[in-house]
Amino acid sequence: MSPYLLLVIIIAYFALLLWVAYRTGKGSDNESFFIGNRKSNWMLVAFGMIGTSLSGVTFVSVPGAVGKDSFAYLQITLGYLIGYIVVAYVLLPLYYRLKLTSIYGYLQQRMGQLSYKSGAWIFIVSRLVGATARLYLVVNILQVTILDSLGVPFILTTLIILGMIILYTYEGGVKTIVWTDTLQTSCMLLGLIICTVYMLNHLDLSVGQSLTAMNTKGYTKIFEFDFNSPGFFIKQILAGAFITITMTGIDQEMMQKSLSVTKLKDSQKNMVTLGFILLGVISLFLYMGGLLYLFGESEGAHFTQAIVDGLPKKEFLLHGKDIFGDKIFPEVALNHMPPFISIIFIIALISALFPSADGAMTALTSSLCIDIVGMKDKPWDTKKKERFRKNVHLLVAVSFLVMVIIFKVINDNSMIGLILKLAGFTYGPLLGLFAFGIFTKYKVHDKLVPYVCIAAPIISYFIDKYQVSIFGDFKIGLELLIINGLLTFFGLWLIRKK
């Protein structure tokens, strides 16, 4: 299919986003950029949050991972559901009761100013890393599949996409993000359904027959019962629960949207509804992943083993080209399906890109202005606050550009695994801080808190690096997040005040 036509479609889609952003942001005050204006409909917020929770990584990496891990990601997703319930009935009541402008204000009230600043900085680093990793994946796919053939360099592609995001988040606030995320989530889910239906028809299989074929190939295995394996089901479910508690419940971006809902009960409905919908949607992504590998085999693809840098590497070769992992969905959709499916795939892919990136930019700007600079308490007039906020927003965009280039250098084959791994290091201290604040009544020596928050991830890194020497056959997986949180909790316990 002509890359020029795909480029025109991307531009038209972006123009629609700008129109929606203009209509929803028109007349809204700048304070809607922050938590505080609780006027959003809970169902609309829930639907918009699906897009933020899924992102382009889920759209591409989760189906691609079926070739390696079968349906094992469903174990983590079951943990996600538990985590959303905990967030709804433990954290949300706390945030609403305290009427927080920033959720990290809780740490200030509970432990002190440096604890508050530490929590905010950890969030900023965590969200920056996670959001830019997701952004890189989609930008790289667009680059390889469309823009390389047009001679457009990778850095220019990144700049243009970041410019697009800035244009429709620059003037708007949380309301704008909720509406644009809802539009994008609808397009992404529609693309998922259409691609799934097309492959079933092409393979001439019913849903039941396709599941039988996947089971024969070993794709439908969900639970791992080997206690020593990093994929052991209890480890995965626990990790999924704590990932949600940290990446949603103590994440400024996600709570920014939830706290825009007027009533606590409606916000809790939003959170629990989100958990059940995500369980269903991710199940459908995994099912589509199985279909992709069946489709690839029907086109002549086969699995093989290669040696790369002295290590065995699994490959899925189609006409001599490796399409294993993150590469299978773009390759099949763009080169082995009809043009209208290619168009739908591109629209769904960029729809998966924007909700994660725009919300992260908004939340990072909010946290830097409120938590780090303390703009709310500055004796500035409205125009100066607005000018400062926009300058910070541009600074966040520049940091996105730098991080995307770093991920381009890393070029990991499975971004979903890398993102969850990085979350274990970056979100662990936040988990420990909030757990200590909620489950103990101790105060701490506030000036020592930043040292604890730095030490815990460093110790976690060495535990992970030398886990074979420490634990033998027992393998640590995503539960590294829990270990990191426990280390932070223990560190805070050591510096508690009597």
**What are the segments in which pLDDT stays under 50 over at least 5 consecutive residues?**
27-39
Fourth CATH level, the homologous superfamily: Sodium/glucose cotransporter
Mean pLDDT: 82
Largest sheet: 3 strands, antiparallel
Number of E-type strands: 3
Q: Provide the domain count.
A: 1
- Which term fits the overall shape? globular
CATH architecture: Up-down Bundle
Strand content: under 5%
GO molecular function: symporter activity
Protein name: Sodium:solute symporter
Transmembrane segments: 6-22, 42-66, 72-98, 119-139, 151-170, 182-200, 232-250, 271-295, 340-370, 391-410, 416-436, 448-464, 476-495
Keywords: Cell membrane, Ion transport, Membrane, Sodium, Sodium transport, Transmembrane, Transmembrane helix, Transport
List strands and helices in order, with pairings.
Layout: H1 3-25, H2 42-64, H3 66-69, H4 73-98, H5 105-110, H6 113-147, H7 154-169, H8 174-203, H9 207-217, H10 233-249, H11 252-258, H12 264-298, E1 302-308, E2 311-318, E3 321-322, H13 328-335, H14 339-372, H15 382-410, H16 415-426, H17 428-439, H18 449-465, H19 467-471, H20 480-494
Antiparallel strand pairs: 1-2, 2-3
Describe this entry's structure for a reader.
The protein has one domain: Sodium/glucose cotransporter. β1 (302-308) and β2 (311-318) form a beta hairpin. Strands 1-2-3 form a 3-stranded antiparallel β-sheet, with no helix packed on it. 73% of the residues lie in helices and 3% in strands. The termini are far apart. The longest helix is centred in the N-terminal third of the chain and has 35 residues, at 113-147. Mean pLDDT is 82; it is low at 27-39. α1 (3-25) packs across α14 and α14 (339-372) packs across α15. The protein is globular and about 70 Å long. The chain has 20 helices and 3 strands. The protein is mainly alpha-helical and 498 residues long.
